[in-house]
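Internal tracking record. Fields below are filled automatically when a chain is submitted to the structure queue. Please do not edit lines marked as system-generated. If the sequence contains nonstandard residues, flag them in the REMARKS field before resubmitting.
Queue: standard
Priority: normal
Entity type: single polypeptide chain
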Amino acid sequence: MPEQASAGAWVAGSDKPERETVRVGFLPLTDCASLVMAAVLGFDRRYGIKIELRREASWAAVRDKLGSGELDAAHALYGLVYGVQMGIGGPQRDMAVLMNLNHNGQAITLSRALAGQGAVDGASLAGLMRARPRAYTFAQTFPTGTHAMYLYYWLAAHGIAPFRDARVVTVPPPQMVANLDAGHIDGFCAGEPWGHQAILDGVGVTAATTQQIWPDHPGKALGTRREFAAQNPHTCRALIAAVLDAGKWIEASVANKRRMVEVIAAADYLNTGRGAIEERILGHYQNGLGKRWDDANSLKFHREGAVNFPYLSDGMWFMTQHRRWGLLKDEPDYLGVAGAVNQVALYREAAVMTGTALPAGLMRSATLIDGKVWDGSDPAAYAASFDIQWAKHDREQA
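SYSTEM-GENERATED OUTPUT FOLLOWS
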């Protein structure tokens, strides 16, 4: 194991973390790796804290334990944090995003049975579903979450109205493969390693990766209650810094990535075989039907800080999709909410501490699978611009 980072790099005195131990929740997903490695390799001690990792069974459990204070912070779905903030993903609480933990690295998986009927990608699935509307059930991991929004976006980009043409259910990520195998669902969107595990188990095929939907999309956030961030700013800054260092370490070499895989595959973390994790971490993909490719936009944890900055436009995008699908009944103050939730000032301080580059602005631009450009400039117009959305197709079906 690499030598642990030395302790005490924070500025003693007024900058000392308010808490020595930080209770951080996570789900067994590959993208928890930077949190795990920050604790395992001692990057947390470098900044005067100890990360106490707590494995959780579902995103609902993460939400509830963040809300009750049983967890100080958590590896969390970006859309979960914003769902709780807006009171549509559980009881309303003022929430905070400290940083983005990853880009890319999720997948949409279809059952072998669907593949046997010719549905192997979005276009072929749409053709099958036109003949049998509402005959198929798809799972996401939390109603306002990242996977729900990417699943719905992908379906709609292929002409499928998620709530009119399909049935949608919520399933915790580690239970996806078993539910697919049992025939309870026909497909799912979840983080790795569960998409690749479905292939290894012979029960699913990869129809799309989420980086094909949105290259370098936001993934999990490091989330907390806004009250905790306000009362413990030095602790939060130290936590961000430790995770930045861990992400940088993971991406420093292939050997480090393989060491990370060995660590997170253990029973305390993902409790799965290394083979389910390693191939896609190294960018080696297959769809389960003989197609193989190397993906430069596989799961990323740092990219010289480009992954981790809490862009306001990332948070705003989730609100546009919550509005699109009728979860938000009224137009929110997109910029105001994102500016309050995303803790840009704390992140900038941690970036300076770790020598991490900072972007020029608070927004970024991307072109998604349907050709639409998202840049945060007019979120209300963007939310209303889709041909397939709740207001146009689903209100009468609800």
